[in-house]
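Please go through the protein record below and explain what the tokens say about the fold. Record follows.
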Amino acid sequence: MTIIAPRSRLLTLVPVLPFTGLTIAYVATNSATPHPDASGAAVLAYTTAHQDLIHLGAFLLLLSAAPLVLATGLLHRALRAPAIAVMGGALAASGLTLSALFSWTGARLPSSAAPESARAFADLAFLTGGPAYAAGFGLLALGLSIPVLMDTELPRWVGIFGLVIAGAAALSTLALVASGFTYLLPVVRFGGLIWLICTAVVVSRRASFPTESALPAHV
């Protein structure tokens, strides 16, 4: 195994930074979105009055999926993580994409639409961008944390932090059956974001990648 130049290793940070910025921008844009327990009438009133804002938020959320996939691939390669990390990153990115599409579509409902339709689109946006995203991100955190804990060159606290995020993500999926677990979803989104930044930083400083000569001939 050959350690490549620091400039190349910094590539692990490149997709994490836009993912962070887009996530923060999305949350700020949608800070006034009605809660999951809001009535369909309240959701419809909000969406019809803030269509452009919701469309902007959906656009930001959709954009954030791409750098998450790139970050997953680079960190997976850097750490030689198990395939569960790639699967988790893909699931999380899919959740973001679907949530953006459901939000965008729900905002296009006319004011004369049935409140139940507005509530349905809001529920789909919440489920895909909330529990589904958390489930995928939890697998990503678990898959990347295992090799971090096994690598003596990397700080163990990053791996432990990732396992905590993975555990919180698993528990947050129980929001489907008990509303009390809904409060874990922001923990996964923001705590996971901090963990992802920390992981990218330590990997960019210490991780090693295989050189082209070290890869199989068919790659």
In short: Residues 6-211 form one domain.
